[in-house]
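Curious: why this fold?
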Amino acid sequence: MTEDPRIAVVVITHQRRDEVLAALERLLALPERPHVVVVDNGSTDGTAAAIRSRFPSVELVASPTNLGAIGRNVGVARLDTPYVAFCDDDTWWEPGSLATAADVLDAHPRLAVVTARILVEPGGREDPIVPELRDSPVPGADWLPGPALGSFLAGASVVRREAFDEVGGFSERLWLGGEEELMAGDLAAAGWELCYLPQLTVHHRASRARDAHKRRRDGIRNTLWTTWLRRPLVPALRRTAHLLHTLPRDRVTAEGLLAAARGIPWVVRERRVLPPHAEARFAALDDVQRRSTARRYVS
């Protein structure tokens, strides 16, 4: 088995030493033999030292601070492969999926992102989000090899580096938590396509080492920021009203709303409404998102 020069992998991790080591063991055993870049987001549990010791072939970036999703930007900047697969420290790619993704991206030069089927471990059950990806109502080009998507899940996706660089990667301001939606809108505005590709598989064993309240706070903030940065007035009002109606009435929600409000001056300065063809993708998802059982803000 030789390295597939078309595709590399970027992993971000924070305070999950044992999990990232297990993920790297699986990645390095893939038949594609991808080059792997790990961005350690300021871990203090010995993650960086353990990676250096056990996996010297892995390119390690030991950030002194937690960069969140921006760690992916740092990792992509280290690469020159045309395609980059993202991997979280509690996910892993099925053997052969990376080569399949590269083949599909080779064949469709305006395709920016392919998102995999996600199996929840242990047990290999489909993640509840998978039916929404498979039955996506989003309009897309007729040449797409799978259902068109309005957004994507970074830890289960392969991106075209040219498209990623064109839109500037993930937003530094959003940090982490639903950060993909803003980037997806900008990709669509620039004429790129995104799709679900069931031939690809990612396994996810959800880590217990997570701050669920922080993720919810940041997710609420980022949803509101993305909505008002890119959606027209009426859809933005509708989505905001639905969010306010359905959020839990608790301290975490209040903190998320306050954080969103503090960013209003920035949102006003940076607001750039999507062109009609890109807005149509988000409009098609509005009803699905309102009914979704896989997109709840709970912690």
